[in-house]
Input
Amino acid sequence: MAKEQFVINREILDHKNPERAVLKAPIGLTEETVRLISKDKNEPEWLLQKRLQSFKFFKEMPLPNWGPSLNKLNLDKIVYYIKPDERGGARNWDDVPEDIKTTFEKLGIPEVERKALAGAGAIYESQAAYHNLKQEWEKKGVIFEDMDEAVKKYSELVKKYFMTTCVPINDHKFAALHGAVFSSGTFIYVPKNVKVTIPLQAYFRKNAIRSGQFEHTLIIADEGSEVSYIEGCSSPQYNESSLHAGCVEIYVKKNARARYSSIENWSKDTFNLNTKRAIVEENGVIEWINANTGSACTMLYPSSILKGKNAKSDFIGIAVAAKDQNQDTGHKVYHLAENTSSTVQSKSISMDGGITTYRGILKIIKGAKNSKSSVKCDALILDDRSKSDTIPFIEINEEKVDIAHEATAGKIGAEQMFYLMSRGLSEEEAMKMVVSGFIEPISKNLPGEYAIEFNRLIELEMEGSVG
Output
């Protein structure tokens, strides 16, 4: 019944608008482009200097020499800044430019906001098209802003947390690139003991050919607070390489809880090289729910740094790779204090020649006594052309710990298919049923509309790849 009420078709995903940017940087990245971005956004001097330092690191640092090949990504042919409209950041949906509004209406943003969200943001190219927080949360001191506005309104607060200890600008080459050219995104601050009981959401849409999107998400859950945040991402396909190098920083203070959910569905000409990390203090909890499909190549490893006693991290992730796709994903967790705990549940599906890899790190330092961790990786391979690997790295420097690691890889059995097809299902219907059962432990943890969307995305990938 749910599928009849919520149907995704390719036109929704591949819908594209004619470009009509009011400002578009030249192709390639130079110091002049970095300065152009900062000047156009009227940023404070400290942020310009941070951008310039990031640009310096970017030029000096090498590309990763492990994981999927990045040979087809030409960084000199990317457009790093596109401003689609002079206004931006509307608080009223009716004030959003008509073609941009149509795109987000196709994706269901205003409808979902009205039904189930405390606030919503819509980011288009390098600029916020819409951002709004319901008044009941504003009155409690919750801040939910586009990053560009947050830099102006809460400059000292942003300066304290932005790319300092969580994801420093010299973390790796694409973090440095992000620091140099980041644009728009989401800033959330939840005051002490405030519990935001319904989710906040942002949706990132990349429209232009050969473009890059570099949104920044910064979440601060102060002591005793709770927040749930959902991100969705998509782009049309042009058959020319484009780039997504976003960054997510989450600070979970003492006794706080944060949940970050994401569905990334970039087009199959996009290199998705994203960085996500959380620092969790005493008795804090971070929950990751991550779903990846689309993109030619993904390198994404959300990380939890369990800094305080009794800190906890739960990660649930799924990656789907079809033809011409390489999904290299996983989770990193660092136990730095006593009684910390973590769970990792990762699933992947490979079909039609796609490649999936679980790449993870589990590290427990000396002194992190009574730490517990459980890692479970399951891979489903749908044909003989596809591939899946599991590459875990585990470093234990403390004796009094409880660690479990399990990895499985398998194909759909002939007996399963025979049984289902003998009940009147076609081969494709039988395959979809098995896949739905495989991902059910993951999809049931996604917010309702997103769970239905993700199941439909997988069905779209499977069309024509079975048989």
Q: What stands out?
A: The longest helix spans residues 427-443.
